[in-house]
Specification:
CATH topology of the largest domain: Spore Coat Polysaccharide Biosynthesis Protein SpsA, Chain A
Largest sheet: 7 strands, mixed
Strand content: 5-15%
Structural class: alpha/beta
Helix content: 40-55%
Shape: elongated
Number of domains: 2
Bound molecules: guanosine-5'-diphosphate-alpha-D-mannose, manganese (II) ion
Number of helices: 13
Length: about 375
């Protein structure tokens, strides 16, 4: 169906929206046009706007949105360059929204847009702050998931309930509506990391929230691929850490430290293996340092800085820079430990201070030097 069909008169188009639908996208080009039609059909006479937040998708979802927006002015595109992330995309989309209510929905038709209207009506009728589209209440369902994915989701839901109690049956849902003032009041507290924006909104609230639900059955993806991975699960664990420590531990630093811990294990394993083969201590220690630096670099590249992952020549350059950074980190470690030992006269405490200093130094240097913001991506001229 064409977007032109069912178009409003210019006057109607000027109506302020009641609902702003925020859609985060990454490579969803072919889902956009049908999605706009489906949402338009589902909402009928409720005034809406749709804000697609696209992270400079290689398939140029952003240009598809801009093209369609010329015929459908309720549609807008926010193209973010050099950025990745579902939560931050949703937050930035919501910040440019004009509706009294913000709806968050995926672009791939897994969220049933036909419940947008019942969700909105329920919010108005019950005066709720949030309405969650839930898969886990009577009438809802997870659709065609394999057992592993179902177990993962079940586990994550239980963890999430530890954080927010039983305020909703589906705290991991990516499909919900929230009143704009509730969202705005939490803007400085939201984590901006990972996938779990609803969980973040609920757990960051300073006041008790009134939460209602509308059930739906999770559908299979219409086109394109899922971006969920083991990493999404890890990010979720770190959101929980961040919330439980009240923001003291940023998720990226937590990941970086865990990689460092694994690196220590690698180091000791290499050291001991070489000992078995009859190597001298110094040679074995140097080899262990080399291996653990390389393995730390690879793990950080895959996980900690996945959104800025280095490949090809930049991978090699990054590895060399990372080894340099770590050597300075070791110096910082020794320097601080040396000062600390004079103050506390306790090897373990002094050693710990040194290690923390080294980790903080390595982390800041790695973030600003090795995995800097990505550079310009070259596209073929957009149509
Ligand atoms: N802007 C932006 N940036 N959008 C992204 C990014 C990103 O880095 N990563 C994913 N998206 C968009 C996708 O294009 C899609 O519209 C939506 O976010 C969800 O991504 P999927 O890759 O389809 O995720 P999923 O289907 O595995 O997960 C969904 O279901 C979960 C429930 O099991 C999401 O809705 C989750 O929030 C939800 O918890
Ligand atoms: Mn999906």
């Amino acid at each position: 169906m064409s977007l032109i069909a069912g178009r409003k008169t210019p006057k109607e188009r000027l109506t302020a929206p009641d609902i702003s639908i925020v859609i985060p996208t990454y490579n969803e080009r072919s889902n956009i046009a049908p999605l706009v039609d489906a949402v338009s059909a589902a909402l009928g006479d409720i005034p809406w706007e749709m804000i697609v937040v696209d992270d400079d998708s290689p398939d140029q979802t952003f240009s598809e949105v801009s093209n369609l927006a010329r015929q459908e002015p309720r549609l807008r595109c926010l193209r973010r360059v050099g950025r990745r992330g579902l939560a931050s995309a949703v937050i930035e989309g919501a910040l440019v929204a004009n509706g009294a209510v913000i709806a968050v929905m995926d672009a791939d038709f897994q969220h049933d847009e036909r419940i947008l209207r019942p969700m909105f009506e329920k919010m108005m009728a019950t005066d709720a702050d949030i309405v969650v589209g839930t898969r886990y209440a009577e009438g809802g369902g997870i659709g065609e998931w394999d057992a592993t994915r179902a177990r993962m989701s079940d586990f994550a839901t239980r963890m999430a309930c530890m954080l927010v109690g039983n305020q909703t049956t589906d705290p991991m849902s990516g499909f919900f509506m929230v009143r704009r003032e509730i969202f705005a009041s939490e803007i400085y507290d939201l984590s901006q990391q990972g996938y779990k924006i609803l969980l973040d909104i609920i757990s960051s609230s300073h006041v008790p929230l009134k939460i209602e639900e509308v059930p739906y059955v999770f559908r299979t993806r219409q086109a394109g691929e899922s971006k969920i991975s083991i990493m999404v699960l890890a990010e979720f664990l770190f959101l929980i850490i961040e919330k439980l420590t009240h923001g003291l531990i940023p998720p990226r630093f937590a990941l970086f430290s865990i990689v460092g811990g694994i690196g220590l294990g690698v180091h000791l394993a290499v050291l001991n293996s070489l000992k078995l083969f009859g190597f001298e201590f110094l040679g074995a220690q140097i080899a262990a340092i080399g291996v653990s630096m390389v393995s730390n670099f690879i793990m950080n590249n895959e996980f900690t800085y996945r959104d800025r992952r280095l490949t090809g020549l930049s991978f090699v350059a990054g590895l060399i820079l990372f080894c340099l950074v770590c050597s300075f980190g070791a110096l910082a470690n020794v320097g601080v430990a040396e000062i600390a030992i004079k103050q506390v006269d306790n090897w373990s405490i002094a050693g710990l201070f040194g290690a923390i200093m080294g980790a903080v130094f390595n982390f800041s240097a790695a973030t600003s030097l090795v995995w800097r913001r990505p550079r310009k991506r070259i596209f073929a001229p957009a149509k």
